[in-house]
Design a protein that fits this description.
This protein has 11 helices and no strands. It is mainly alpha-helical.
Amino acid sequence: MLKKREFSGLIVTVIIVKMLLSYPQYLISVSGQAAWINVIYVSAAALMLAFFTNKIYRCKKNIIELAFLCGGRRLRMAVGALVFLILLSSYASISRIFPESVKLILLQNGSEREISILFTICAVIGAWFGIRPLCRINYMFLTALSPVFVISFLLLIPHFKATNIFPIFGNGIKSIFLSGINSLSLFSDVILLNIFIEYGKTLEEVRAVNIRATAISAVISTLIILAYNLCYAYPFSADFLLPAYRLARMTEISTFFSRAEAFFEFIWSILVFVYASAYIYA
């Protein structure tokens, strides 16, 4: 069985990975400089859904097992196929973006195919070790990463310009609250919580993980997109492929510490491999 903090850490990782890659670019294309409001809005919706699912969930069985109990073998097959397609879609998007990003930043002369093959091999090895070692390693890594994240955010404050988030509602209230509801897909990786529900000690712990992981992911995602909105003016902010990498390049302490993107590349790679391994295992 997984400890609650380890289980929470895995769900946080699979959610925030998208914020380190291309998701901020999508948010800004929808809501402009009000992307941070969009994240707060969908985070509130995600928390409401988490509370709702906690209320209606009565047993420690995943969605495919529940489908079998409710509708027999045919419903289980239909739900299983749907879940598989959702998992495959999420994994495919990351496995496509990651090699492109590595080639763009680290290996300009490398081949995307070779990077993709190496990425898949490493992810399969991670999945082969199993979900328990994966969660424990991820939790240790997140524990070490937490102070780095806080320090990095503080170092970005001198680059903040309040004028970059005006007009405050960006592309308009409609873009935030109507078009922006599609941004709820930021939290779609919570599906892994349901699939791995059997690894929770009790149903109460799983419910607690649902709320805790959603809340922590919401805070981290809001801080990332708010920092990005404050550092870069719209519409230029919508043109960058890796917004979090751009923020890392701005982090420095006089001439003593610079080139923080080297740390970002390491952190980003580890988190993406954990994400991919968890999805392959699922």
